[in-house]
Amino acid sequence: MDRGVRSELAGIGMTSQRTRARMIERLREGGIRDERVLAAMAAVPRHAFVEAALASRAYEDTALPIGLKQTISQPFVVARMIELLAAGRELGKTLEVGAGCGYQAAVLAQMAREVYAVERLAQLLDKARANLRQLRLPNVRLKHGDGRLGLEKAAPFDTIIVAAASPGVPQALLDQLVVGGRMILPLGAAEQALCLIERKPGGFSETRLDAVRFVPLVSGVE
Ligand code: SAH
């Protein structure tokens, strides 16, 4: 490799480290307080999860296309959801529904004991696999399946995080949450809000939070 090319690559590396540090500052300014969450967001190179043509925008606080009409989630929303789930506790064994390109699974892997990430689109799952391979995260498992059904084989879960919106809470996900466990999901269709669900010994509690915008949760696999 000639010296010009090498210094150019080093330059990209520097830029992404600096822009990632700026992303963390913006998350802090936006109200993310949990240092565990900020450290996890700082540890994952988001540019490695988008197409090369979008890499220069990877640390903007916005969702970006990843193909097949799907998106990589907005960093602030990823941080906010994980912070709500982790408040006062560990994430433990975690189920992610809607792995997409694998970004959020990589962030969760920094904090959770185990991450099971389910994706219904085989083509995206392949991308997620390739992206995650580079990061060598032994505690993440990717599965092809309809996450509306949860993941019976690995249930129950301490934490469930859903990255696609639905009008109601899928029953299987409620069933696969441990007592004392938490789930967060975007509820609604045209208008959506984050909903935090906690399983208590006597039943479930539900808290409605921020307005959000997610792609829809869809049945079946492709
Ligand atoms: N977690 C991703 C966000 C991906 S967007 C990130 O880190 O950026 C949401 C994903 O949910 C899409 O890839 C979509 O295909 C997937 N999805 C939608 N319905 C699903 C279902 N029933 N089961 C599993 N995945 C689903």
Q: In percent terms, what proportion of residues is strand?
A: 25-35%
**Largest beta sheet, briefly?**
7 strands, mixed
Instruction: Provide the low-confidence segments as ranges.
Output: none
Order of helices and strands: HHEEHEHEHEEHEEE
Measure the end-to-end span: 41 Å
* Overall morphology: globular
Number of strands: 9
Which class do the helix and strand fractions yield?
A: alpha/beta
Cα-based radius of gyration, to the nearest Å: 17 Å
Strand order in space, largest sheet: 5-4-3-6-7-8-9
Summed up, the helix count is: 6
List cofactors, ions and other ligands.
Answer: S-adenosyl-L-homocysteine
Helix content range = 25-40%
Average pLDDT value? 94
Short description:
With 222 residues, this protein is α/β, with parallel strands linked by helices. Helix content is 33%, strand content 27%.
Please explain how this structure is put together.
33% of the residues lie in helices and 27% in strands. By secondary structure, it is of the alpha/beta class. β1 (64-67) and β2 (70-72) form a beta hairpin. It is globular, with a radius of gyration of 17 Å. It starts with a helix and ends in a 10-residue tail after the last strand. The strands form two sheets. The chain has a seven-stranded mixed β-sheet with strand order 5-4-3-6-7-8-9. A two-stranded antiparallel ribbon has the order 1-2. The protein has helices spanning 3-29, 35-43, 75-86, 103-109, 122-135, 171-175, and strands at residues 64-67, 70-72, 93-97, 114-119, 140-144, 157-162, 177-188, 192-200, 203-212. The longest helix has 27 residues, at 3-29. It is built from six helices and nine strands; from the N terminus they run ααββαβαβαββαβββ. The structure holds S-adenosyl-L-homocysteine (SAH). S-adenosyl-L-homocysteine binds next to β2, α4 and β4.
